[in-house]
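Fig. S4 source data, part A: sequence.
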Amino acid sequence: MDQTEDEKKKFEELKASFEPLCKLIKEVLGDKVEKVLVGSRLDESPCVLVTGEYGWSANMERIMKAQALRDAQMSTYMISKKTMEINPYHAIITELRKKSDKDKSDKTVKDLIWLLFETSLLTSGFNLEEPQHFANRIHRMIKLGLSIEDDKMDEEMPNLVQENKEAPKEGSEKPASEDKNRMEDVDWFY
């Protein structure tokens, strides 16, 4: 769509205001992305990953990783260089910019950057290299959303685990349904 001179000027000013956030995202992600840009084509997503013109697409990368006789040098050479485009109009990105302006070393900001990157990987069709780290970040964000402190969980967990490890007294058999519930409690904590 053609833009007027005023619209182009406003967008350039907007890009300039998001430049520190772009630099921070690049610092946090390191070599996972080639560059971070402010995009103008995004509508609903906070960010997207775009591959280079001559790199592999997400599907081709997945196919080549699955090959039995693949060459390790070729796959590192051809793995797509990803460019992250952020949407300056999205509420998540604007709030992330505000938080990062206050404190660039905030662990929550870094976790949010990684979550945005990993969710962009998933929505773009790429595979996660370390799904356990992704799951841990999600769990920390859920705890944050539920206002659960890590110290509180650490204090409660040993007590509940200790309760579950108590052996039944001799002569007092517990019904099978009660044993099943105890097992579910133990599974929940591990």
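Fig. S4 source data, part B ends here. The first helix runs from residue 5 to 17.
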